[in-house]
Specification:
The structure is a homotetramer of 390-residue chains. With 390 residues, the first copy, chain A, is α/β, with parallel strands linked by helices. Chain A contains 15 helices and 16 strands. Chain A has two domains: 206 residues, 3-Layer(aba) Sandwich (Rossmann fold), CATH 3.40.50.1480; 162 residues, Rossmann fold (3-Layer(aba) Sandwich). In chain A, the strands form two sheets. An eight-stranded mixed sheet of chain A has the order 10-9-8-11-12-15-14-13, sandwiched between helices. In chain A, strands 4-3-2-5-6-7-16 form a seven-stranded parallel sheet, sandwiched between helices.
């Protein structure tokens, strides 16, 4: 049996399960939309990203890239350099070194930006080189908020915010996050789902998915939601709907997906039963008030990977998963979103960058949603790639 | 055992299962928002409507009402007259008589209109009395379209279009219609659902509900949808997704919910297998091309209530339910939407009319959505009335 | 449009949706297993039974039949007589006349019995003609109990008890009853299912189906079950599981499917909330203690077809469906089990009678289960008739 | 934060989530059913087993134990020795050393056997010491087959076969395996479930669970089953049902759970589409014919942990998970059955051993099912421990 353990082999497997990017690569090799353009990227460097960058390079882009702090995979960096790209950074970089890496990408004066957290956008503004940028994309919601907040009005080029996409709301938030949260709770805790009592805080796209998949797995699910219309939807979807303080004594698992800080605060924590398991699915690690929990506990014990038990003076032990960070990225060997979900998200990136490169005149300056025709084209290709008609 | 068979008894039972209207009635008896105002109504006259009118009358309204052509229930008319209201019309009225009834309501110069199909709105415009109207509500989507189409700009008073409500999309279209269609197909045909192959045309709110409940009942469901984003949603919801012509030979039941005419046209009809069952859930009876079907058949036989079989020269027999009209209002003893769904919809009417009567200054002239604060207030009351927190 | 309103037309439609019987009819027309044999039948006379009898007659049987008391459909009697069968009875028969009808079938000295409730078996014993009977089938569980109880050892010929079949447990009890109960509750009450709180008493095949389909329709379901192993199954299936007295205040709908008398007795009735709806799905009308309920009430009002409200001195109104009889056979226009479920059950009858007629030597005297090879043959045909492989 | 990384800490966490064993430990500390008895064990040595052994020791048993070949966890061995038990074996043992370990347990002349695969039973027979054994339990189905096959009639003492239990069929096979297979396929492959096409071979308890949970997660599921009655059940449960050769071209994932060898043999393998993913959930690694697959391939590549791709001369790549061994025990960090499922299974062990130790007179010699009263007692305790009544 041949064995492939390096970056090239990992990328080969993943590339084989991303058919949308594969087709774009073939198309771009012919149309060469990025010929003569330099693309600056700031995004996690892992095998899926490598497949994305291959496609952009096939379209003629000269790639200059860096990763996020602490998540860069060194064998993938090696693979990308072997492919002729310029890549800054390694896993062990200090924060200072990481910032130098971002600046190095900015200093390469890219024509196109593939950004996350608006790091490159802020960089070119600071460097005074924003005028030489044709346009770009922004991967994250938090980057979108920054572009519309502190940077509002300052960006002279179009930036397509990928996470605004309705395809991502359904494909990634509802189904992707919904399933990976259920899978992760099982994988990390080894506890049973059917017949267990779950409280899901928040009934947005992620919360809808989490509640749906927990119930599908036999869980008994209650929803806490302060928005009246979403609470109405949850009640008709057949869930018990009540405030967290009413559900605190009933639940055995509590999962937050609200986007708001302090959702599981002292008022709820003090009511939880012994053995309650807490997990967060929201982007920021602030939904569970871990400071309050720590202050209540006399002892905190790491009982297994990504599992801490907080022993309280009243005898209760409260179990916190992943320290309150995103539970579906925690524990040993988390894999994150499915390959298909990333194939979808990266095709949004790919076709948006093509639009910026070839028809920037049809876009206005500043942050904006993915053009509707791109959404529809990708929806069509995704359904076809699923063989949904069979 | 006491027996009640007249209008009063039927209304009593239904009133007892409409808790939102019951509470509004108590509130209005105190606040009297309609004191001194005349309310003209044009809406189906059946027991649920009677409960609505009682609430408005309790709020001080002088009610002048008529029904729709052919659906007026005479014992309810009697009951309403006993309650002191002015009601025009009876079940056997000719179309001419019905039109006279509508005109009689218009001629009473009402201050408020509770309209459907924009009949009263068009009436006051034609009569030149629109200027004396404070405002009103419109129950139906088709009335809303008329107000925004042929009557656009002509209406000088605010009209709140109830069917635009997101509460109705979820409560009535997704869940109400979804379930009543499944119930009606079973009730009318006496056929089995589990393991049967269903094709649902259209994945809007109604189609989503129909597909969901058919699958929940063990049906194998495929979806046909031309909108790319909805097709994407259906595919990730786990349905087979393909064009109707591809599904025609596979399906056993075909249910339309698209809003478009001729969806099941000759190209699909000629491919259907022997015994295929066709039903429509859309508002208009045009989604199944019954003229084409009739033209193809050498014999049409009514085999049971609301079931016709079309025998074709090639030996196939195609089964049409309800003549292509709304299947969930067909057959013997259809009951229409659930009492709770009507309680919801009529509270939207009630609070919207109160807003028109008491704070018309906060509204603009012409058709408009239900004010957001009313939506939220009703969502809150509905969830509470369900006891969802228990 | 041609209209068919008589027995022949109704039978034609139903025959067209019973493909298993259709195939048996073709087979029997060739093999003639009943040539020269007289078949005595005692079973509900309605269109589905007519299709069964046609098959037996096609196999050469001389049919002598009567119905059950009060359910005979006169147009079907006429249709059967036109087909050359001897049929006793009409809808309006007195109980005495009905008993004379059964005796007339017995007195015709049939070779084969198609029995229900063991009426014909008891009849031939009483008449001293049991020795001339080759064998027969028994449709019902209660007939099977009688054959194994008061008649144990007395029957000198083989009787195959159809209701023992595992195919019927799954096809009819789990799926057929499960769905028709949900459909009937909706049809009779016009109340909403999603988000409502249901208590299902009993987690046998019927209870499993009822709970499954109520939850599938968005209901919140709790199960009461005294058998520990079934309670365990229900809990892992994700239901709340508790004694009825604990669930009494929580539930809104209570549905019994236990097979035991007095399940909803005074101890539970006194705890029910105002407006609670009670229905029974068990064969006998004894699971809800209607005598106790009547004794508690100061007034009983029939508020709609198959809906009675019992007003209690403490102000509560309790709603009883179908007087505590089988709810899925109640109300206006109940259709009973699906045509496919009857096709299945009647093919069990048909092939069992063929076995009795042609290979009685392979059977022992007295009541017995359907031979395993017949079960498997029918399972195979049913799956094929569903087109399950498509 | 205190950190516990050794055996004691891992056992502490797991012990805290096994409430049934915790209660048995308290009971046994009082009743001491095993006082003066030596217990010989042959079972995987991992943290859950340690919790079981603690309970038996608390009941007075002198424990002499060994593990299975290759799965012994050394830190747990150390923990058990610290607790005063005699344990033979370590992870790195050769097969010869493992056999010596089993013999060492046999040579200790235990009074009670806690066996798997009938290794100890065969051992005491070979050693001629079977006459000194009071009785025992057997964990596995394959051990039960051996006791009823090659060893039939030879065992002079009662052996309770745990895996025959209906509680295990539902709790472990349907729900436990069903869920862990879905979780494992996601964890190992990082592929999407919703909308994907799955073929499940076998509709026994495991297959029912796998099909149910795949569909619950949005998968489109077909079932292949040669037993007619199970195929009927699957069809009414709403699955496509067809032979594997018909489904081979349609499926994307193929999961076996039949108990039979060669289910995915050359006839199916040659029809699979490019990229098909194969996994086995059955106990033995023989359901997928990996020899045939290997013979067809020109190259086999390990593309990730527990993922091999077989490249065939016709250009197809077939993906095999876990080398055809149980997929839910494969990949990085598999955790096996849930803690609750093991709590259930080990309480069956515990109370069965108590019955053997204290009332062997009520049992017959040889293999037998768990006594019904123990099943019911455990069902009751399990439902109570779930808080199912809340």
């Amino acid at each position: 049996m041949a064995s492939e353990s390096d970056g090239a082999a990992r990328v080969a497997w993943i590339r084989s399960r991303m058919p949308l990017l594969a087709r774009a690569r073939v198309d771009f090799a012919e149309s060469r939309p990025f010929d003569g353009l330099k693309l600056g990227m700031s995004l996690h460097i892992e095998p899926k990203t490598a497949v994305l960058l291959e496609v952009l390079a096939a379209g003629g882009a000269e790639v200059v890239a860096t990763g996020n702090h602490g998540s860069t995979q060194d064998d993938i960096v090696a693979f990308l350099r072997d492919s002729g790209m310029t890549v800054f950074g390694r896993r062990d970089d200090s924060l200072e070194q990481h910032e130098r890496n971002v600046r190095a990408v900015v200093d390469s004066t890219p024509d196109l930006l593939l950004d996350n957290g608006a790091d490159l956008a802020a960089g070119v503004l600071a460097a005074g080189t924003a005028g030489t940028v044709t346009g770009g994309t922004e991967e994250t919601t938090s980057g979108g908020l920054r572009l519309r907040g502190e940077l509002a009005g300052a960006i002279p080029f179009p930036t397509i915010v990928i996470n605004d996409s309705p395809l991502k709301a359904i494909g990634e938030n509802r189904h992707g996050v919904g399933q990976s949260v259920v899978e992760s709770v099982m994988r990390i805790t080894n506890l049973m789902i059917p017949g267990r009592r779950f409280v899901v805080a928040g009934y947005g796209w992620c919360g809808r998915g989490i509640a749906q998949y927990l119930r599908a797995f036999g869980g008994r699910v209650a929803v806490a939601e302060i928005d009246e219309l979403k609470a109405f939807e949850a009640a008709l979807d057949g869930y018990r709907v009540a405030p967290l303080t009413e559900l605190a004594e009933w639940g055995e698992f509590f999962i937050t997906a609200t986007g708001h800080p302090g959702v599981l605060g002292p008022d709820v924590l003090e009511l939880l039963p012994d053995g309650a398991v807490l997990a967060n699915a929201g982007h920021f690690p602030w939904e569970i008030d871990t400071d309050a929990l720590r202050a209540m506990a006399h002892t905190v014990t790491e009982v297994d990977a990504a599992i801490d038990r907080f022993d309280l003076p009243d005898g209760r032990g409260i179990v916190l998963l992943a320290g309150g960070r995103m539970v579906n990225l925690a524990g040993r060997e988390p894999k994150g979103n499915s390959l298909e979900a990333m194939d979808l998200g990266f095709l949004l990136q790919t076709l948006s960058l093509e639009r910026v490169a070839t028809r920037a005149d049809t876009l206005s300056p500043g942050p904006q949603a993915v053009p509707d025709d791109i959404e529809r084209e990708i929806a069509r290709r995704f359904v076809a790639s699923m063989g949904a008609s069979r």
